Amino acid sequence: MQETALRIRLITTFVLFSVFLFAQDVIYTYDFFELTLRHTAEGNPFRDVQIKGVFSQGDEEYEVTGFYDGDGKYVLRFMPCREGIWSYKTVSNVDSLHNHSGRFDCVKKSGSLHGVVRVANTYHFKYDDGTPFYPFGTTCYAWIHQEDEIQDETLTTLKEAPFNKIRMCVFPKWYELNEIEPAIYPYIGRAPDQWDFWRFNPAFFRHLEKQIRRLQDLGIECDLILFHPYDGGHWGFDRMTDDQDDFYLRYIIARLSAFRNIWWSVANEYDFLNEKQMEDWNRFFEILEEEDAYGHLRSIHNGLKWYDHSNPRVTHLSIQEDPWEDGGIGEYEQKIDRWKAKYKKPVLIDEMKYEGDIRYSFGDLTAQEMTDRFWYVYTKGAYATHGETYIHPKNIIWWARGGRLYGESPERIAFLKKIVESAPGSGFESFRGMEEDGNAVRAGEACYLFYIGARQPAERVIFLPEDKKYKLDIIDAWGMSLSKIEGTFSGKNLINLPGKPYTAVRAIRIH
Amino acid sequence: MQETALRIRLITTFVLFSVFLFAQDVIYTYDFFELTLRHTAEGNPFRDVQIKGVFSQGDEEYEVTGFYDGDGKYVLRFMPCREGIWSYKTVSNVDSLHNHSGRFDCVKKSGSLHGVVRVANTYHFKYDDGTPFYPFGTTCYAWIHQEDEIQDETLTTLKEAPFNKIRMCVFPKWYELNEIEPAIYPYIGRAPDQWDFWRFNPAFFRHLEKQIRRLQDLGIECDLILFHPYDGGHWGFDRMTDDQDDFYLRYIIARLSAFRNIWWSVANEYDFLNEKQMEDWNRFFEILEEEDAYGHLRSIHNGLKWYDHSNPRVTHLSIQEDPWEDGGIGEYEQKIDRWKAKYKKPVLIDEMKYEGDIRYSFGDLTAQEMTDRFWYVYTKGAYATHGETYIHPKNIIWWARGGRLYGESPERIAFLKKIVESAPGSGFESFRGMEEDGNAVRAGEACYLFYIGARQPAERVIFLPEDKKYKLDIIDAWGMSLSKIEGTFSGKNLINLPGKPYTAVRAIRIH
Question: What is the ipTM of this complex?
Fold first, then answer.
């Protein structure tokens, strides 16, 4: 036994030594290669210096834009999506940054590096390596702008929580319950509103990147909100000129698109940004499509005004709306069904109000209702995002500032997530599977899920294929338990239910 | 003391004796005078014999239609709405029934005889004597068609329940969970479908009248459904000819309009009666208006298809719809507000699904949700109707057959009723009284009610008049308790709430 331990220690030492030796030259797929070049810091390097890198392997070629990182450092980042030897060269309007070249070896890391999340099967998502991704989002708009201890606590909370996507803002937030000057700003200047919108603060972006990387380590996708209205002119990040907006957007794409877990959320509540027009949003989508070499997911989130998601640059719907307040008696097709039919894109209900008890009606859901809403959305074959707004003596409220979670829904969302992830295939398809009100989804013919919601029927009719056999479980979505129903089932079945709210039925094919 | 007891006994004896002596000649206001004349039973007296009565007092004159009650009896009924001596004479196409005359004395009975319920103050109701009537309905469609013991049990249940209006059908019901042949039918013939639609069965109508009178004794308005689709051709009462429909309608008006507690509900789920056209419904309203001398309330209840309640013969809206599934973020004006603004009539949500656990989604509400819906409707200045559908081993389910109530909402509806009835004025007016989602109503400036619903805010902003002072109570609508908030309040107030669902706030003016 001791011999084995020694051998492991020797191997570990050798591996660490090798990694040290080739640190700059061996890259994992979906991690990124970074090249830092030096040049003067004089003038306005953000504006004056252009640098690009061309990365190639065989026929495949990527052109990525570099960025100025302060202190005379010019950086190029590249995320290889394929293993093997990649070579690169630089192109710049500055001689000393032009025509640098080199190569590095990209190797596959088994396990967690699945790549970029992309739309799959019209309404769903997969990582590049084919692993299905079922978004279970949460919301911490301004967590990176808080005191260090709160940020650390947020990450500790996320480690235990079921969420694999987080909605968060680049710019800080100035809003009721959130009126805090952060320690660091994205621009050079003086708070609150004396900024040079042509000079970024690299330290701010390095901090943002550090936190995005820590999210990566937790397997969490960063649904990064590029513009938001919760500034109201306090800092003025919501009312820059068109050129300044584009300048910011290009800088952030250059810095962040090599992070595999980035999703671009062009705006939160876009329609509350009074200074912007529809042509601005269109232009931002264009820039994102052109400049992001990897094609990360792109969306825009509404306030009161619906966005036309038929824009082909929008990869998925990022909705704020109550999709269940609709339908009426006996109507199966509710909003989510109609949105899917119309746009042929995945639907994410990225705000459906928050569990909490604050005075505002966006943040006073019970845990039961938040849980119910999650179940509703997933049993329509769509995806949802959580948020929490319990009153806190220091206003450290999860929805905006992070910290701790106090609610009872995350545990139930974890339970739902396990059920969703255990189904085969890559996502549920909504269908008319119940005689009466209630949602039904299927993963092919292998797994069915029926959800009855806040009602309490003691019986319900469900429909399964006539020619297959299934075993059934009754699910208590609130109590987080499954109990088997004796027997096997096919076709139309009147199922006995416990007669209490938040009941679901799962059918798994046996032959 | 014994002397007093003796004196009371003597007075009682005298009063009873007097009533006996003048039994036919002294009538209470809002009770009815009945004149029975005899003639042959030959031919078809329902069709062949016409008899009318003209009742007058001073300038006031009422013409009422009589009806054939079987066994050669021809009956005229008249409900006097004013005390004093009334005289009458009959008009008939049959000599022996023509030109009978007489008089009777009408006296006011103190206490319970308030008269006919009528629309008051646009959106509300009052009895003829000015007493406000706040409808709190329930639903027992076919209770009069059940075995006697069940009918008696229904009345016993109603005696303890908070309901002061009942939706019930003339025709029996043939519908899932309700497939029963009644003991007695409205027509002469043979069950199930051999009827002479030109010959009524007076025994059936006498039974109906007995039960309407027993409802009167309990202070319950009879919201009588004249046509309904839950026959499906089994008996054919849903598919008579136009002439037969009108014949039935005129007969029932002749028999029942003298009952002060009658409301005419032309149909339940009118749009499911496939044999009828819109012109039929219009004609029924015309006949009701022409033939009913007292102008009882008239409505029609929808299934899936909205009825145009702007028809001036419709006195109030009798709706089936979920009025809360609407509005969206920050919208104060929801369906009820819009209906009131459009039609300028009282709004009754006469079906909003039922508390129960049956397999159908019309009958699987939790008691919490039923309670919440009641509160929602009343804090929009409208009125609601209850129903209950718990699975029963013999299918004796309240909604259709009556019997017992098993649910937990009636107790809570009673609690709400007390709060509504204790407010001054004749009904609540909806207004924008909350900063965020939630309903607010006011009774002038004397009493305000704010309802937050299934949410759990621990704070909410409410608005009161700036120049008046109010005391506040926190109401737990589910727990049925009131607790006083210390202090007096005016204008805009941030109120601390218990942070749990089904909370309301009541403000009562102190000066």
Answer: 0.89
